[in-house]
Amino acid sequence: LRCIFFMSHSAPIGFFDSGVGGLTIWKAVVDLLPHEHTVYLADSAYAPYGERTPEQILERSQLATQFLLSRGCKIVVVACNTATTNAIAPLRSQFSVPFIGIEPAVKPAALSSKTKSIGVLATKGTLTSALFKKTAREYAEQQQIQIVERMGKGLVPLIEDPKRDSAALHALLHTYLAPMKAADVDFIVLGCTHYPIIRTEIAAIAGPGIAVIDAAQPVANQTRRVLERHQLLNQQAQPTIHQFFTTGDPIACLGVMQQLGIAQEQLPLFVTLDD
Ligand code: DGL
Question: Which residues are bridge partners to 122 per DSSP?
Fold first, then answer.
């Protein structure tokens, strides 16, 4: 146990993502840990991270972490596959709070696949990262699984846009999912936290017989384990406070929160991390 930080158990859990995608993780964590206060940062002005260089992704992740720590967060959930796969190791060595990351759920899909073929839809940043390649190689080789990878270029901007163009979304999804279906996958791994927001559209195109999975629940479980290990679970049963911040459009952020059933009285607050 590293005791180099002295954080109160009643401090909030911090979350960041390149935008609204990490709200899917926020929801799973808050459902599991209803006594925790939270701070969520959507770095929407810099989305998509998936098209940026590893150096840019690290820089934004450092700024986002600094912001969350300045709000007193006791741990940081990197609610973004792209930021996790490109930046979590340097974040862990630079900052003393515990970090929880998210990676595409290749392992459960590979272990459960009957057709021995799985699809992974993720960003360019995630699919080209060393961490993802290592995991994919490990499980594909061990289980003799074919992995059909597709970069979901264009999906994140459509999901971030409050006037989501459903025809364009549908067309893109068809393009990305067709090779997976042709390869007889029985699992499609949503390797970007934005994609569960359009799970209904993805599942409709995938059709019956293909399970569409993500890693929100395992991340929530891991968050609880880490808080327990550091004796940081909130013990006080007072009303919780959830704060939402965005570097982009607060109305767009609120739109996705409403779509996910996240009740919030006030608009997310606009912030800039660049000062
Ligand atoms: N939501 C993010 C992820 O899980 C990043 C999407 C993006 O900004 O490209 O990968």
Answer: 151
Alpha carbon distances (Å) from 32 to 15, 16, 155: 15, 18, 28
DSSP state of 78: E
Catalytic residues: 80, 192
pTM above 0.90, yes or no: yes
> Ligand 1 pocket check: which of 156, 161, 198, 253 to mutate, most ligand atoms within 8 Å of Cβ?
156
With a pLDDT cut of 70, the percent of the chain lying above it is 97
pLDDT at 76: 98
Give the least confident one: 84-98, 190-204, 259-273. Answer: 259-273
Indicate which atom in ligand 1 lies nearest the CA of residue 79.
Answer: 4
Identify the residues whose C-beta falls under 6 Å from ligand 1.
17-19, 21, 47-50, 80-82, 123, 126, 156, 192-194
